[in-house]
Design brief:
This protein is of the alpha/beta class and 279 residues long. The chain is built from 8 helices and 11 strands. This is Glucose/ribitol dehydrogenase.
């Protein structure tokens, strides 16, 4: 089965998993509009692949009140977009018992980037995707699922979550909480779009070597986990198979995570019909 979409808008495409997946999509003859804060990296991406295959837009997702304008501009410039891939994120440590170790402003800013911006982008792009005559999707990516470390989940509104949504990492509470919220949001979004042409896909990667962990020190942070290019290949193959929940991608065991995800989804599917019409 081939990837069922023709033009992917990929937010968070200047580094890490996002950049690796953007490169891999173009190899599969899929057009990509890359979005990120760093214009130099976006220009390099377009220069590498050529303007027939790659476009770019500079946008900072932390500016949440401008997201509706960004979505309007993106869809006006690229009306053939049929997949929105949300893969951006930020991460830092917090010692919750020490008020001097990061204040509430920092905590809220991380929650805004890792969760609130996903909600705002979803709301901004949903009417456009619903208007498409064919199938469309969101892919959400939840970072990171690393066993004993982080968890990631990708959703087909295209967004990335994380296995930390299921088992939090104590040293990164804001990141873990945002991913748990995003995971719950994905369940609700998928159910509300169940009778539409828009799919919602969730990716849960293992620990992947990216700039996300640079706060640990670049040498240490980028030496952990599987290479982003290797994960991108795994993710694309899973998406081509039509999976709407993709866990893992490394040699680390994920059976316990898969069992938990399967049980949660079964419970949700049983309870959701009873709760849909509750006022």
């Amino acid at each position: 089965m081939t990837f069922p979409y023709n033009h992917v808008l990929l937010i968070g495409a200047t580094s890490g998993i996002g950049r690796a997946i953007a490169d891999r999509l173009i190899q599969a003859e899929i057009k990509v509009t890359a979005v990120g804060r760093r214009k130099d990296r976006l220009d390099e991406f377009v220069g590498k692949h050529g303007k027939e295959k790659a476009n770019s837009m500079v946008y900072d997702v932390s500016v949440i009140d401008r997201i509706p304008r960004f979505a309007a501009d993106a869809t006006a410039q690229h009306p053939d977009i049929d997949c929105v891939f949300l893969n951006h994120g930020t991460q830092r440590k917090y010692k919750l018992t020490n008020p001097k170790d990061g204040d509430l402003v920092d905590f809220r800013a991380e929650m805004d980037v890792n969760f609130t911006s996903y909600v705002a982008l979803t709301q901004a792009f949903t009417p456009f995707l619903l208007s498409k005559s064919g199938s469309a999707s969101f892919i959400l990516s939840v970072h990171n699922l690393g066993v004993n470390r982080f968890i990631e989940i990708l959703i087909f509104f295209d967004s990335t979550t994380s296995l930390l949504a299921l088992v939090p990492a104590p040293r990164i509470p804001a990141y873990s909480a945002a991913k748990a919220a995003l995971n719950a949001f994905i369940y609700c979004l998928r159910d509300q779009l169940r009778e539409s042409n828009v799919g919602v896909i969730e990716l849960a990667p293992p620990l992947v070597s990216t700039e996300l962990h640079d706060y640990m020190g670049i040498e240490k942070g980028r030496s952990m986990g599987m290479p982003a290019e290797q994960y991108a290949e795994y993710a694309i193959q899973a998406l081509q198979r039509g999976s709407d929940e993709v866990l893992g991608g490394s040699v680390q065991p994920i059976d316990n995570f898969q069992e938990l995800v399967d049980k949660r989804r079964k419970l949700f599917n049983e309870f959701a019909p009873m709760l849909r019409d509750v006022e």
